[in-house]
Amino acid sequence: MRLETEVKLDYKDVLIRPKRSTLVSRKQVDLNRTYNFRNYQSASESLLTPSGKPIHYQGIPIMASNMDGVGTFEMADTLSKLGLFTCLVKTYSVDELKEYFSQENELRREHVAVSFGIRDEDYRNFSTLYKACGSNIKFINIDIANGYLELFVQYIEKLRKNFPSIVIIAGSVVTGEMTEELILAGADIVRVGIGSGSVCTTRIKTGVGYPQLSAVIECADAAHGLDGHIIADGGCTTPADVAKGFAAAADFVMLGGMFSGHDEGGGEVITKRYLTSQFVDDQQVIKEKKFIEFYGNSSQSANVKHYGGLKNYRAAEGKSVLVPYKGSIKDTVQDILGGLRSSCTYVGALNLKQLSKRTTFIRCTQTHNAVYEK
Ligand code: 5GP
């Protein structure tokens, strides 16, 4: 046993220090980024970065997670029009995916990833899909809870060898050395985050995890040293956390909970009635509130829905909650992007790329005044 005593931090432990800025309006801030991926072999891209590298990705690098109620086709089509990215749920069938990707569609190719696991069946299914409509699919997200498995690294190697023209997203991990290993095995983008998710119970069930801000800082540093990229995945509860993820040098920030509860997620809207303390004409006022169910990929709910129940050797490492119904995703996106533009303005960053370069985090004991929060 070994004990590391250096303090590791979460988003809630820091604030971003303001810096002198020449910006006059938030409107000036450009949230688009362009990336050149390390291992992906492009057959068609012709745009070049100022330094002469082909541009493999261009957009606002915020991703919807491959979770039920979040990574849906409808969410993908709405977010891609806004410049954002979606990882589709793993539970779409090959036929559903074939239909979705059957026609050439620039937005879907550039802003949507299919998601698979690492079973033989996953490999067969992806191969079938790729044969049918590979030219319309550019991104694959290989999602497993524990990215430290040797088997996972071997799978990424095999995928990279056999599909050179696909951008590989792989995770999840939380340490620099494993980020490097996945990139060297062929991943282009590594997902960073274990136990940080809003409906994740891994830390409670296993005691395993890593504070998210430190994980992002350390993994981004490791990835960037190899020209790789990372996603800060999980743990964002406010637009401020999204800004802190980018400020910590994440190339992408992935959201589950913050994107849950919207029309585009397709969940059933549940109306609950409750008694208030108000009275009108001696009648106690009843109010209604709308909710949508949101649950973790490894929760009991997900296992029952997609896999016929939880296997007897496993514990659920996710939970199920009712989140307030939030309407259209467009309003939430506007709120997040508005916050992000403002963060950039506070540190004098003209664009998202400059945000981390101009960030000094300060450790704090309280991020905001919560006096009126329930
Ligand atoms: P959030 O944005 O809700 O805080 O976190 C979303 C992330 O939580 C997902 O992208 C995924 O990495 C992780 N996640 C989703 N479902 C589960 C689950 O059931 N268990 C665990 N351990 N993590 C989950």
Characterization of this structure:
There is one protein chain. By secondary structure, this protein is of the alpha/beta class. The protein folds into 2 domains: 31-40 and 52-265 and 327-363, Alpha-Beta Barrel (TIM Barrel), CATH 3.20.20; 269-323, no CATH class. The chain is built from 12 helices and 15 strands. It has helices at residues 73-81, 94-100, 106-111, 120-133, 150-162, 176-185, 202-206, 212-224, 239-247, 300-307, 329-347, 352-357, and strands at 14-16, 33-35, 57-59, 62-64, 85-87, 112-116, 139-143, 167-173, 189-192, 229-233, 252-255, 269-280, 283-295, 320-324, 361-363. The strands form 4 sheets. The chain has an 8-stranded parallel beta barrel with strand order 4-5-6-7-8-9-10-11, surrounded by 6 helices. Strands 12-13-14 form a 3-stranded antiparallel β-sheet, with helices on one face. A two-stranded antiparallel sheet has the order 1-15. Helix 2 (94-100) packs parallel to helix 4 (120-133). The protein starts with 13 loop residues before the first strand and ends in an 11-residue tail after the last strand. Guanosine-5'-monophosphate is lined by residues 65, 67, 145, 172, 193, 197-200, 202, 233-236, 254-258, 296-299, 317-318.
Strand content: 15-25%
> What is the general shape?
globular
Cα-atom Rg, whole angstroms? 21 Å
Average predicted confidence as pLDDT: 96
Distance between the termini: 41 Å
CATH classification class of the largest domain: Alpha Beta
Strand order of the largest sheet: 4-5-6-7-8-9-10-11
Uncertain runs: none
The number of strands is: 15
**Ions, cofactors, ligands: which are bound?**
guanosine-5'-monophosphate
In CATH terms, the superfamily of the largest domain is Aldolase class I
Structural class category: alpha/beta
- Total number of helices: 12
